[in-house]
Amino acid sequence: xxxxxxxxxxxxxxxxxxxxxxxxxxxxxxxxxxxxxxxxxxxxxxxxxxxxxxxxxxxxxxxxxxxxxxxxxxxxxxxxxxxxxxxxxxxxxxxxxxxxxxxxxxxxxxxxxxxxxxxxxxxxxxxxxxxxxxxxxxxxxxxxxxxxxxxxxxxxxxxxxxxxxxxxxxxxxxxxxxxxxxxxxxxxxxxxxxxxxxxxxxxxxxxxxxxxxxxxxxxxxxxxxxxxxxxxxxxxxxxxxxxxxxxxxxxxxxxxxxxxxxxxxxxxxxxxxxxxxxxxxxxxxxxxxxxxxxxxxxxxxxxxxxxxxxxxxxxxxxxxxxxxxxxxxxxxxxxxxxxxxxxxxxxxxxxxxxxxxxxx
Length: 360
Known about the structure:
Elements: E1 2-7, H1 13-16, E2 32-36, H2 44-48, E3 61-67, H3 70-78, H4 83-105, E4 107-112, E5 115-120, E6 126-133, E7 139-148, H5 160-165, H6 167-185, E8 190-192, E9 198-200, H7 206-210, H8 226-236, H9 256-261, H10 271-281, H11 288-298, H12 315-318, H13 323-330, H14 340-346
Antiparallel strand pairs: 1-3, 2-6, 3-7, 4-5, 6-7, 8-9
Helix pairs in contact: 3-4, 4-6, 6-10, 10-11
């Protein structure tokens, strides 16, 4: 899940001094990595330059915390073979989520001729820190991503309302990318249930009980070595009690009913809602370009939609996927399997763009 914390200080020692050694060797390089810009990600002076603002604003930037679903964090702790692939998939998802926020949520407001206009902006520097443990010593794969309040070459800060409005869609993009990458590059099988839960096939629910991720009190910040973390997780597993195995994954690659149900009761549906619904409905995940291509193919007039005041759709428009699929839904089909051939017949293309993975 993605959470955002407002930063009013340029003190970044909290992040630069945490080497994230608990997953050293599972990720490429150190904990710090540049999503935009260059420099020493372990240098507080370099990292602090990310947090740009104006003389009139008190907010210098935001700490975007992107956390993997608990079963994926658990997989890092119990499966040494899959762990590096899961961490790489997590970083790919983080990058996709930040790309989405920059493309659709990063705007500045400009007043001219008695009106107010939105203008797209971009970040000059963005840095992330990948960690694998929480304060209780439980497996917790997550990134802290620092972004500045003032975009590149702008004299005003970005519209924070837009950033927060697009977080659910960015989180769905992250999770969809994570599922896709894990399924493509590891032996694990990850899928999303109709109830919105990420499931790892074969992972006993007892592990969720063992590492629930909740503590009565937040302990002090502690730096763990890789050996300490592994020893802690190994000791914890002695208390593991089997509960139940998750159900087998569904046959469908796309949950059409889940997509339609995402808009139930909604009075105002925008492109960001479509993106979230489509990404969530991709049972085994989808690359971000494929999600955006599908939505833009279905609703081309929304291709330039961004900011908090996106043009809304009516419910009947939002639920439309493609003519053939609409007929299936009207008949109450329980399992609609969407593959690439189906999408081609329906006029929806699954486009995949090459991505530079050097920063993984």
